[in-house]
Amino acid sequence: MSENKKWYSLDLGLKRKKASSGGCGCGKSEGDCNSPKEELSAEEFYEAAINASIGDERHRDGFEQVFDVKMDRRSAFKKLTASLLIGAGAVSTSCSLTSSGDAKEKAQIDWEEQFKGNYKLMSDEEKKKTVDRLMRSYELRTGKNISMTAENAEEDVLFGYAFNISKCQGYMDCVTACVEENNQDRNSEMQYIRIHEMKDGEGFKFDKADDNYYHEVPVEGHFYMGTQCFHCDNPPCVDVCPVQATWKEEDGLVVVDYDWCIGCRYCMAACPYDGRRFNWSKPEVPENEVNKNQHYLGNRMRKKGVMEKCTFCVQRSRKGKNPACVEACPTGARIFGNLLDPNSTIRWVLENKKVFRLKEDLGTEPKFWYFMD
Amino acid sequence: MKNKNRIYCTLLLLFAILSSCKNEGEYHSVSDRIAAEEVPYHGTLSSEELLAGRDLIKITEGDHIFLIPERKSQIKSFACIECHSKPLSQMKEPDKTKAHWDITIKHANIETMNCASCHNPQDMNNLRSLTGSKIDFDLSYKLCAQCHNTQFKDWKGGAHGKKISGWTPPRASMTCVECHNPHDPGFSQRWPAQFNTKKAIERKEGLDH
To answer: From the CA atom positions of chain A, what is the Rg in Å?
Structure first.
């Protein structure tokens, strides 16, 4: 086990017990291991248990909690006490003689997932491990295999997007492709993309525009424009997140760690573009419709009470493909590419067309430009 | 009092100096970052895999060099001379069934163009430019570019049309005829692919924002 692991593993006897690094192996870091245990009252025990499990964090501020955690130094006693409080279920399953090996493995995975660190701070090896756990967990739960990756941002890449208002006809093929690609909740009909039907000659009036029309399109005298997450270079949603569960990656993608998000929805309130969505209920996707090519930061299955948003299809874009909406658009209104590459088509658009961004005066620096023919 | 002022001034100066020192890698705007960090992409990702198995032709138009799909094998009735074995005037017979009955021209008006604006009755296997030069079916975009030159300019640059490849090099773009039927190039009205019933309910109940 690596020294700088940021979660701790509950030894459930699946692997042979390794000799602990120091001391006699009883796990106690202080005192003689043969010394008799003191009797504790219920209240004292509760206090001691909390101290044992989150003791360090109690005396630290948020920054230190995230950046200065020395989980690996905790003694086995601490782990066990913490497990009683937080992982009671996991422990009872894992200690039960009657439960199967699968259940034990599931409990082990749940445990390790519960105590893994923030994705931003993980090493590549840790990223691989969490991805492997998530894949195995899915297999144990559904009997189906998924492929999940955790590719990091490529060097010399900054993703950008351009949307041609003159070309969009409002067919909404992009919306369908997006929902299918990104495993969005079918129950609440969550959609990242909104296509606004706007009246010609009235400019952008989002309050008067219709983003849920159902008639043959395009309608005479109207134009269509799409909005989604603009992956701002100065994203206000990232600034307000109290737990750093959302951040901007090196390639410009603004992403969410669904396992770190606490669901406070500050980011949703901070976004001036309605780019973020919240899971009010457990997201459900029929098994045969699940897109099994997943990325940790992208379209892997979310849970209830976490935020999600467009990631420019990180599972596709970090493999060199275009996002699903770009591929699905029948009119070629959507252009995606590498802003740092002077030979890319997106750069040609930015340099040769008259481009603008929404609410530019806010200083959010969206990497999503609009243009016209 | 004087001392206090001095301290104020020093602090102000210090603040100004500190705030003007930008951290490395931080830019005022995204265009500053692009200007500072731009470099042609030669990374590990490429569109080769996406393009594997496709028949592509490399074209050079102005400064732009990119791939387009081969067309002739996609045209069902190519080669045309399999039927057009003699000049068109000899094939026209009033009592025979009309060939190409499924093609109606909805492209400009008859004063501007007819079949012979693009097709050459003497050489059916090739297309013909307005000035009479031969254009291969694979390069039919040249025909469109004669009139639609603004679209052609945008297409070359990448602002018009769709790509076959991803964002990674090599660039492979669809040509005009991949999306537009040359005989009826407009896009028709149709129903949108999506309707959000939940949003409709929310709106009805006044819960929409």
So the answer is: 25
pLDDT one-digit tens code per residue, A274-306: 999 999 999 999 999 999 999 999 999 999 999
Distance CA A48, CA A28 (A): 14
Beta carbons within 8 Å of B146's beta carbon, 6+ residues apart: B129, B130
Which of A171, A213, A336 is facing B167, going by the closest CB pair?
A336
Instruction: Answer whether A176's CB lies under 8 Å from B194's CB.
Output: yes
332-361 in A: which are within 8 Å (CB) of B?
332, 335-349, 352-353
- Give the residue on A whose Cα is nearest the Cα of B50: A321
| The 3-state secondary structure of chain B, one letter per residue | CHHHHHHHHHHHHHHHHHHHCCCCCCCCCHHHHHHHHCCCCCCCCCCHHHHCCCCEEEEEECCEEEEEECCHHHCCCCCHHHCCCCCHHHHCCCCCCCCCCCCCCCCCCCCCCCHHHCECCCCCCCEECCCCCEECHHHCHHHHHCCCHHHHHHHHHCCCCCECCCCCCCCEECCHHHHCECCECCCCCECCCCCCHHHHHHHHCCCCC
> Which tokens sit at A156?
């010399």
Tell me how far apart the alpha carbons of residues B143 and B170 are, in angstroms, rounded to a whole number: 25
Probe site for chain B from A338, A350, A367 (most B CB atoms < 10 A)? A338
A window 161-190, beta carbon within 8 A of B:
162, 164, 167, 169-173, 175-176, 179, 188-189
What pLDDT does A3 receive?
54
* pTM score: 0.79
- Taking CB atoms and an 8 Å limit, are B43 and A155 in contact across chains? yes
- The residue among A216, A208, A226 whose CA lies nearest residue A167 is A226
Contact flag B45-A345 (C-beta cutoff 8 Å): no
Q: What is the mean pLDDT of residues B129-133?
A: 94
Contacts of residue B160 in chain A, CB cutoff 8 Å? 164, 167, 332, 373
Interface ipTM: 0.85
Q: Return the residue in A222, A335, A346 with the most chain B beta carbons within 10 A, the one to mutate for interface testing.
A: A335
Of B50, B151, B193, the CB nearest to A175: B193
Q: Do A189 and B198 touch (CB under 8 A)?
A: yes
Q: Are A86 and A79 a contacting pair, CB within 8 Å?
A: no
Q: Which structural domains are found in chain A, ordered by start?
A: 42-145 (no CATH), 159-371 (3.30.70.20)
What are phi and psi for residue B63, nearest 5 degrees? -85, -5
Q: How many residues does chain B have?
A: 209
The answer to whether residues A135 and A147 touch, using CB atoms and an 8 Å cutoff, is: yes
**Helices marked H in chain A — which ranges?**
42-58, 62-67, 76-86, 88-95, 101-114, 124-142, 173-181, 236-240, 266-270, 314-317, 324-328, 345-352
pLDDT in the model for residue B209: 59
Contact A343 B38 (CB under 8 A): no
Q: How many residues does chain A have?
A: 373
Query: Cα(A26)–Cα(A22) distance, rounded to whole angstroms?
Result: 10
Q: Is there a contact between A212 and B200 if contact means CB atoms under 8 Å apart?
A: yes
